[in-house]
Amino acid sequence: MDSEKILLGHGSGGLLTHSLIKDFILKELNNPYLKKLTDAATLNLKNKKIAFTTDSYVIKPIFFPGGDIGKLAICGTVNDLVAMGARPLYLSLGLIIEEGFPKSDFKKIIKSIKQISKKINLNIVTGDIKVVEKGACDKIFINTSGVGEILEGCNLSTDKITPGDKIIISGFIGEHGISVFLKREKLDFKFKIKSDCNNLDKLILPALKKFKGIKFMRDPTRGGLASTLNEITINTNLGIEIVEEKVPVRPSVKAMCDILGMEPMYLANEGKMVLVVGKNIAKDVINFLRKNNLGKNTQIIGTVTKNNPKKVCLKTKIGGLRILDMLSADPLPRIC
Description:
- Helix content is 29%, strand content 25%.
- Helix 2 runs parallel beside helix 3.
- The strands form 3 sheets. The chain has a 7-stranded mixed β-sheet.
- The chain is built from 8 helices and 14 strands.
- The chain is globular, with a radius of gyration of 19 Å.
């Protein structure tokens, strides 16, 4: 029976992923660090706090508009550290390569990793290579683990979120998911959509140093913005109300979603950050982020509320209110 097997949807970052974590991983491996289920673990080492994270990348195709699996692996891991308020310092690089993979493509990926790491001033300090038989994996898979130093005085947590706090997104949503899908399916539309794959350390860390009222952050990757917001409501027992007109979606992404029957709220992003901030500083935060090219389309999109606890509600353009559930099925597997 399918109910007794792991499905592609278990890797979506949505409900099925959370059930796998809760029913198996937390049940057997639970500890004070793991149970928080944050983007990175926060660890105390003598007088310093560090963030430690790991991630695996199985994206298909490995080259896509705006990036490749190498750039994605570095940016994805860096952004998980940044979401915890940490300055990225060191990464590991684990490579699982299918026999017969072209060395020319491997070289492109390593050069891409070099380029983005140099931009971030990040060191790849350890790693591993395994080669498996042809057909045992799809071209190349990458695993990265990252270590970063948490900024002094920074302690981001859902425990700090209160009614009235504002929800901020640092730019247009859905670009990564749509660009990868179009490349994968070899669909040739007039819309030229690039992935937003990028490192966010230079956008977010200065904001954390300037504003003490930033309470929580998360990068909305698998499962998209809707699933990320649902995770926040579940952990706080509060509700979130989003205004549809305020959510930034490029016209090209919206048009492709309409054609393909997709919802931008559930599409993966690889260069955006969701911030929960005190209402008294929200406008100052977005004005600050907009000064950086990566944050020029930052918007306040909603509010934390006591109403509808553990629910995300979307106030539609026509004035209605509908619930945005966490992603259940996976419309785009292997998106990162």
